[in-house]
Amino acid sequence: MDNGSPVSMEKAIERYDQMRQEMFQALEADLGPRKWAVTPNDTGPTRAGCNDDDEAETVILPAYGFEGSYPESEWKQAAAIVEKVGRGYGFDKVKVIVDRPGDFSMTGLSKDGGSYDFGLASNTVLGMRTGCHRWETKPPPEG
Length: 143
Known about the structure:
Layout: H1 9-31, E1 37-38, E2 46-50, E3 53-60, E4 64-66, H2 75-88, E5 93-100, E6 103-109, E7 115-120, E8 124-129, E9 133-134
Antiparallel strand pairs: 1-4, 2-3, 3-9, 4-8, 5-6, 6-7, 7-8
Helix pairs in contact: 1-2
């Protein structure tokens, strides 16, 4: 997601939204449609400061998911689809966190510190967190 020049938080969030939609579309094309929506307990985007830049923040974007999961026999295929789309957005470090019967999760990391988490178990969830970016127009403090 980083092309060598600073990217505003607004632009970074647009890219994450675009990546999420591409992931959903690719999963649907290969594995069939699902009703992705913001997870029920999600409180919306949350912001945090960055250690190395007092003007920058990181944003945890709303997590999306659907009730239920893909058949377990399709989990590796689903993970490969998410990984392929993520790599197209600069998420070159991919690590499987859990891989056991009934539970699979992986994370993708970008050079700018952004990440996504993709988990499959009784439900399926995709979460994303930006790296550190400065806002063009900083929103008011949360609270």
